[in-house]
Records
---
Amino acid sequence: MSAQLVNAAHEVDKSFLFIFGASALLLALLTAAMLWFVFRYNRKRHPVADQTEGNLWAEIVWTVLPTILVMGMFVSGWSSYKALRQVPAGALEVKVTARMWTWDFEYAGGRKSKILYAPVGRPVKLLLSSEDVLHGFYAPAFRIKIDTVPGMTTYAWFTAEKEGDYVVFCSVYCGLQHAKMLTSIRAVSQAAFDAWLAEGAVRSEEAPGRALLENKGCLGCHSLDGSPAVGPSFKDLWGRKVILVAPNGSKSTVTTDEGYLRRAILGPKDRTVEGFDPIMPSFGGQISEDEMTLILDFLRTGGKPPKDGRAVAEAEGCLSCHAEDRSVLVGPGFQGLWGSKVTAEGPGGEHDVLVDRQVVLEALSLPGKLQLKGFDPIMPAYPDLSDEDREALLGWLESLGTDGHNVHSGPGGHTP
Ligand code: HEC
Ligand code: HEC
Ligand SMILES: [Cu+2]
């Protein structure tokens, strides 16, 4: 045996065949001997039993033969075991993380995936661990089955010889969705693999929120389409009312706003959603603030592209009083408004105000509160804007603003 075996699976097969063959032979011999004794020494042919004591040859044969056989099985088993444990040099390393109830794969360079991509003909070394309980990585096509243990890294390797999809199971009973803890190994040509690896970084940015939920394993327990799963579906999660149950059984109703969702994800949780088991792991320390923003955005918008703020402004009629550029219609032009200083007048006289998120929110809910100098107080209130529309509008205004040196004056005044 050399350390450069192309594929340990063949060694496993050889060993299996040997042991199977030896067992089959033994079974055949024993059955034949048994039948022979039944025939030759039954009561008709052999009414009186012989008493035989101490047959040296028979004792040698039944000691030596089985010993040889068992040693043969050991040697062949050992050689296949060695092949499984000796990873050829130059193997591609992939990090495998098991968690209830999904598999994550991470490649050099940071690309992650939910199914294991492997180039045909190249040995792949798996470095396995678990985030929660004991699982087992079982890929029968490649004759590997190895435990994944929390807090410990185990390894295994394989070489795919043909392109195709090969199933991967979890081999350790690990809870409710154990049977669904499936993934596959997708063997592709080296060229296709390289292309996939290169394209990866770009593609995972397309829907970063969704990719994150997938990478963090959330989608193993939460559905996106409203279908029932281990946890509540993420569909329309934002802003709904949920009933929470405390360990002592008392119930309370909360609205799923940002603060609540943060706590639900980062824990520690003192209450669980009614009708569900308290098995959601707490992700405190595992989710950065940037990632949290992406997740919350995704939960809020359901991954739909954000609404176009300009379209909202048009639909709500803002553009009949406000121009998109700096020109003044009935109200100040939107361009450059955000982030600029405006002069407001009130009972206490004139004062400068910086137009920021707070000011715009107020303009939409209590337009009379801040009265711009030189304009008529006719800006209507928009108390019924949906959160989504309001955020889209704010985003759009912000994108038009912040050059800092704007002067807005009323229709009677002069435009800079
Ligand atoms: C092992 C399964 C599991 C995983 C993994 C999991 N959750 Fe949960 N999650 C649950 C269960 C069960 C509940 C409901 C019980 C409770 O409140 O703890 C829940 C509740 C929640 C809630 C509150 C939902 C509501 O209706 O109030 C949010 C938000 C949430 N999970 C987000 C996440 C996010 C984000 C991730 C990934 C970072 C994640 N979960 C990973 C099982 C899971
Ligand atoms: C009927 C005309 C009219 C419509 C429609 C209108 N505005 Fe105004 N808006 C004004 C006038 C006039 C002012 C300046 C007087 C004032 O401050 O109330 C103003 C002021 C503002 C300001 C400056 C901040 C402030 O508190 O004064 C913002 C921001 C603004 N509007 C945004 C909007 C948005 C967004 C919409 C659409 C959802 C909208 N406006 C619709 C007339 C209008
Ligand atoms: Cu498992």
---
Amino acid sequence: MTGLESPVALLEAWRGVTVPLREEMRAYETWFAEEGIAASADVDRQGTPGLRMHDRFGRPEDRVLYGPVYRRMLERGYATGIVARAVDEQALLPGYQLGYVTSFFDPGLYCPYTVSLGTVLALYKYGTPALVQRFLPALTRRDAGVWQGATWMTEAGGGSDLGHQVRTTARCEGDRWYLTGDKYFCSNVDAELAVVAARPSGAASGVRGLALFLVPRWREDGGLNYRIVRLKDKIATRSVPTGEVRFADSEAWLLGREETGIYQIMEVLNASRVANSIGAVALIQRALAEASSFARGREVFGRPLAQQPLFRRQFAEWQEELRGGFALAWEAADQLEQVWRQEPPYSAAYHRFRLLAHLAKFRTAEQAVAAAQWAMEAHGGAGVLYEYPPERLLREAMILGIWEGTPHRQILDGVEVMARNRAHEALFAHLGEPEGADALRARIEVLLAASADEREAGAEALFRELASWVGGVLTRLRLPRGESGTQ
Ligand SMILES: Cc1cc2nc3c(=O)[nH]c(=O)nc-3n(C[C@H](O)[C@H](O)[C@H](O)COP(=O)(O)OP(=O)(O)OC[C@H]3O[C@@H](n4cnc5c(N)ncnc54)[C@H](O)[C@@H]3O)c2cc1C
């Protein structure tokens, strides 16, 4: 058995990793195996940290009260350059590869790095030179002084329908903006900077009237710029604090232009959907590694579970699923690497990437839940016990489908990019028009020709099939044959 126990080994076997990064990744993996995994279990077990809203003199403070190991664990990731490399190397793939390692050990911990990356990209692309100079150096540090980012869009009325549910307003005075409103799901809630969706006064209704703002945690006068109202008690992802935030005339800067705000918001989401897909695949690998390790040690009916024909068959099928998810998620990352510098109006390659990102987010999140559940079943009763990994893996997997846009959103947005931008045509061409493309194309055209309601109601089965088919095609095109690295 080689490969499954090590995220770096699998990446090396299936994609290859360039030399300086490989050493960094191996060291990071070794740290996790020796120290980080215990710290991560500790953080999960401690549950939601406390929130101290005032210091002992009664001054507003909003400090998240982490246990002693959390910051050390968090800083270890920043030290690898998981966020900084995007700017230092002008490349997103190194950070995604480090994210794969992170998520193998702790899927929730990948969130702070992902939302920090989203903040960095939005600032880097759309901030004025003065803003970039002021904030980017702190966000791209690799030591304990690093500033973190956050991406806050969702409000209490709902996250899927941002156009109607974002009630946070923004008013302008000179070159400065002031935000007022509540955000309901704010991960990395004590980050030093956040990118926030809000509606400028007088802007159009719907998504077209939304703009993206950079909001620092502290005002220019040193006071808190907004309040953390509470922390959420979640089933998992306890390695990132998620809270509710209240803005009241909070100082902000506009990123980019008001008219293109929704595109900038979508760019932030696209980068994190790719991260979500990569994190989901790492979780699938981990689930299979845990199932395999248990099955080799557990004796049933006179031989190890791993040698029972039914188990062997299931395991082989799961390895194929892993290959499909891996190929799909990394294709989305590779495509993003090609297009992330683009601004609206986007090219056909950008729309093709968007379709891939929706397919990957949808499929890998679904696979992650099923894989974690299978790993739990494979462990029998031990699978549901708090003290062994499958129980946590299943809890972590459940969140991957919901944040960064639910499965419904991935399906409907995926259908939209096919209808508006013919992204499926670009994808089929990119894949070399493989066998099966014509049949799928014909069914997609029937779907797109249907009424809006029929199209939405009928989209799921076809979208699922498309995701699975694209994963299969990419497995054949991109992954080494015969030598899976997981036998
Ligand atoms: C742990 C955690 C951390 C989070 N962190 C952040 C964060 O940092 N920043 C942030 O902005 N958000 C964050 N979120 C919010 C997340 O993005 C939203 O929960 C998600 O987008 C769904 O929004 P909602 O919960 O309001 O559900 P709703 O939008 O109300 O949706 C409810 C249900 O309706 C379905 N639905 C919606 N529209 C349709 C349709 N047209 N057809 C069929 N079904 C539909 C949805 O798929 C869902 O199943 C976080 C969520 C969680 C769980």
